[in-house]
Specification:
The protein has twelve helices and 19 strands. The chain is of the alpha+beta class and about 400 residues long. Strands 1, 2, 8, 9, 10, 11, 17 and 18 form an eight-stranded mixed β-sheet that branches. A hairpin with a 2-residue loop joins strand 5 and strand 6. The longest helix has 28 residues, at about 325-355. The two termini are about 35 Å apart. The structure holds flavin-adenine dinucleotide (FAD). Flavin-adenine dinucleotide binds near residues 106, 168 and 270.
Length: about 400
């Protein structure tokens, strides 16, 4: 790879947000370079999201990376909510004019985007160290980094901060310029991936006195299960046997009896956090995806929000380069945040509905009971859940 000097858009981070933005810009003939702190294999090994909204799937398709997703992804038209020893199906399609979600792993989305980027011959610097950004409040932003032991400077028109929650872009914004809204929940999710058929054809969200559980999947032969655990719990403290025993305790007897267990391929703990940093633009720096916001995974919104942000940002950048118009760039933050706050609300609501937190008193527990009973009986309540779960319009 030759030493970089200038590009139109420098993209920091090669997660789904950075890769998709790169593809949408390349598709429109806009030059871009991605800088990624980790190796390609490391990025591909991170087991994360698995639920795509139909709107996200359409964006991936329009970007020319939807072929395998449409072939291998599983279309789901409902989810189960389990509580009080029984399962209650929520129809997603009926109240939403036939919409559903697609089960397709984030690792697969990332792989498809990486393959496409290679075919496009668009440059990515993996294992870029000490990435630092500056000048985004002036005319020509600059990115410095070290790659294979050599120091590089990259000049650009715009920087896209797609570097996730622990990246370098958000902390580079001057102190006081950001409004932060945050809630850290007193629990985490312990996830286990294994090569066993899923216990059910659709996802099961379980509310139980011992804590939340989720029966999810990645394919007809690969399952993903989650248990609510203590915040900061050590995944290695959980043997596979201990995990399966605890999961069975939280499932209704019929589901527990149908569960096929097996050796885990991966186990990890994810924290539960709601977080929004506003605004998402500072001069020539734009934040997108987890760099600007986090949702607890209960509503399956994180990856979808990253795709939505990038859709808006790519539209704005394309408008700038094709029409020399700043309108889209000026509207980006407000447009993205309106949708983000809807997803924040929904993810908080799903989390509060289904988890038992140590500080949940009797009153809050009784409210949870009442809300779940209402959800099981009310078509209006089910329609509201379905509308949000399949994704609000982009
Ligand atoms: C257990 C779990 C389950 C989830 N389930 C779902 C789900 O079902 N549905 C859903 O929609 N979402 C889900 N999510 C959330 C989803 O995975 C994230 O929202 C998504 O990864 C965000 O993409 P991103 O590209 O913005 O950030 P990331 O995927 O975090 O990518 C950021 C990239 O930037 C790189 N980077 C960081 N710092 C630097 C630096 N200084 N220099 C260069 N590069 C840097 C990182 O290495 C990384 O590759 C889940 C998350 C977890 C943890």
């Amino acid at each position: 790879m030759t030493r970089p000097a200038r590009t139109q858009v420098a993209i920091i981070g090669s997660g789904p947000a950075g890769l998709l933005l790169g593809r949408l810009l390349t598709q429109a003939g806009i030059d871009n370079i991605i800088l990624e702190r980790r190796s390609k294999d490391h990025v591909l090994s991170r087991i994360r999201a698995g639920v795509l909204e139909e709107g996200s799937a359409r964006i991936l398709e329009d970007a020319g990376v939807g072929g395998r997703m449409r072939e291998e992804g599983l279309v789901h038209h409902g989810i189960d909510i389990a509580f009080g020893g029984g399962r209650h199906r929520i129809d997603l399609s009926g109240p939403t004019g036939g919409k559903g979600v697609i089960i397709y792993g984030q690792t697969e989305v990332t792989q498809d985007l990486m393959d496409r980027r290679e075919a496009d011959d668009a440059p990515t610097f993996y294992e870029a160290e000490d990435v630092a950004i500056s000048g985004f409040d002036r005319h020509m932003p600059e990115t410095r980094f070290i790659h294979e032991g050599r120091a590089h400077t990259l000049l650009c028109d715009f920087i896209a901060g797609c570097d996730g929650f622990h990246g370098v872009c958000r902390p580079s914004v001057p102190q006081g310029a950001l409004d932060i809204a945050e809630r850290v929940y007193p629990a985490g999710w312990l996830g286990l991936l294994c090569e066993t058929p899923p216990v059910s054809g659709e996802l099961i969200y379980v509310r139980h006195g011992r804590g939340f559980a989720l029966c999810s999947m990645r394919s007809p032969t690969r399952s993903r299960y989650y248990l609510q655990c203590a915040a900061g719990e050590d995944a290695t403290a959980w043997s596979d046997e201990r995990f399966w025993e605890e999961l069975k305790r939280r499932l209704d007897p019929e589901t527990a009896a149908a569960l096929v267990t097996g050796p885990s391929i991966e186990k990890s703990v994810a924290p539960l956090r709601s977080f929004v940093a506003e605004p998402m633009r500072f001069g020539r720096l734009f934040l997108a995806g987890d760099a600007a916001h986090i949702v607890p995974p209960t509503g399956a919104k994180g990856l979808n929000l990253a795709i939505g942000d990038v859709h808006y940002l790519a539209e704005a950048l394309i408008e700038y380069y094709q029409e020399r118009s700043q309108r889209g760039l000026e509207a980006y933050s407000e447009r993205a945040l309106a949708r983000i706050w809807q997803a924040e609300r929904f993810s908080w609501w799903m989390t509060s509905l289904l988890h038992s937190f140590a500080d949940t008193g009797r009153f809050a527990q009784k409210l949870q009971d009442a809300e779940l009973a209402y959800l099981a009986d009310s078509r209006a309540a089910q329609a509201a859940l379905a509308e949000n779960y399949v994704g609000l319009p982009l």
